[in-house]
Amino acid sequence: MLKTTHCGKLRREDVGTRVVLAGWVHRWRDHGGLIFLDLRDRSGLVQVVFNADVNEEAHRRAAETRNEYVVQVEGVVGLRPEGLINPNLETGEVEVSADRLVVLNPSKTTPFAINEEGEVGDTLRLKYRYLDLRRQRMQRNIVLRHRVTTYMRNYLDRQDFVEIETPILLKSTPEGARDFIVPSRLQPGKFYALPQSPQQVKQLLMVAGFERYFQIARCFRDEDLRADRQLEFTQLDLEMSFVDSQDVRKLIEGLVTGLFEEIGGKRLQQKPLPVLSYADAMDRYGSDKPDLRFGLEFANLTDLLAGSGFGVFSQAAAAGGQIKAVRAPGCAGYSRKQIDDLAEEAKRHGAKGLATLKVEEGALHGPIAKFLTEAEMEGIRQRCQVENGDLILIVADAPAVVAEALGSLRLVIGQRLGLMAPDVLACAWVIDFPLLEWNTDEKRWQAMHHPFTSARDQDWRLLDTDPGAALAKAYDLVCNGMEIGGGSIRIHDQELQGKMFAALGMSPAEAQDQFGHLLEAFQYGAPPHGGIALGLDRITAILADEASIREVIAFPKTASATDLMLNSPSPVSARQLTDLHITTAE
Ligand code: ASP
Known about the structure:
Helix content is 30%, strand content 25%. It has 586 residues and is α+β, with helices and mostly antiparallel strands.
């Protein structure tokens, strides 16, 4: 190797040793006869001193280097003089007194400083991602990601899992999101699809008898990049035979607890992880991925206020809606403007309006107070468990709107009151999801997770009578208000799978055409099985204390799905298109 050790490894014990180092010039200071050069490699930094009296040529060459030059230096490790020890640097007790320097490669002035952690615009960072990745924060994040996947692999290997790669060139099937498709040159007019997830093939691996499979799998979904999404993302994908939901959850609980505590040094708010039903989560928090770092649960006032003299309440209740409230502790002093802002937030989430009450000296005040009877006020005080100084936020609307609007207000209040402690992880399981949800645009049922998820045994019969009431053997793992994983026990019976496809409005011929491979495989001794997928990008971002998954992906795309470094997507040659039997429309 071009080096005998690594910069960041040198310590007091190494004093007196002759070393050869190679790395990047992190920064340098020229003090005339003495040049101090911080040399950086992946392991960290060490100070190298060039003294003109020790070696004139090395000193001269050092004077010619600039930041980010790649150099090799040779010298002797010495103790830094008392008073010049840098306690902030792991190698801060020592320095290398160098007598040789070779420039291995010079560097242009970089478009942003590598040796500072200051803010750099995203466009520049992504265009020069290889330089951005050189910075300490990104080095730390990418190495952390490696430690996460290594931990996962080791954990699952100990549990007897087999890592199996599945095809990237797969088949297009309607699974939820839009597929990326790849034209076939050899079979004109036909296409492969990139996997949205290895769902079907991992189930086929269970039919194949592997019993325990996993993969760090890249998934592709051609969606508009809302919020913090990427077109391609990575999940820990796994599948197990002869298990029920609890078995999968237990295995994953062990894995994420270990990851968060051992690799991330984080504290879990509650262990074992709490388990909530979907209905409960929606009822109490208005979300199937509630942020459980804080309480502020909803109070249901529907029956109490159904006959209220306040028309908005009584009308909502009469129309089958709900009236629910959430407390904003200590917010009774909010100004008109602050309350209007909360009402705007509710409206952005579909509510027609927001009613508020202030709690002062045990009494409820506000524009709607005059419509409420003493019994109604007492009911509100009790159900909301009010305290003086509270602001009570009330939304009356269709249940889905109440959940959405009040759920978002709950988060706003939690955020404002500093209840979302950044160093605590509140993870939980959400179970008993509905099997199906109604697609109002297409006027048909669709699978809430995916069409391979099994209904609870007792709920299959509901598919004929009340499909919306059937619950699934599905489970999501949530953490601080984010979904970080989801899975289910699958259907392994050909007839039930057919029944599910029928419930989704597919004719037997369509089901055969799209999913014949699965229906056929299930006729050859398919074992009961289930699995899960964890969002690797999100989990790593949480461990790295990063808000965006982009910060833990080496080469991410922008919000408009562009790779600024490679300048992709990009046009291809006419020849390539001809080979693929493709003509493009202007
Ligand atoms: N294939 C599912 C997904 O990607 C996860 C699973 O059910 O295992 O969301």
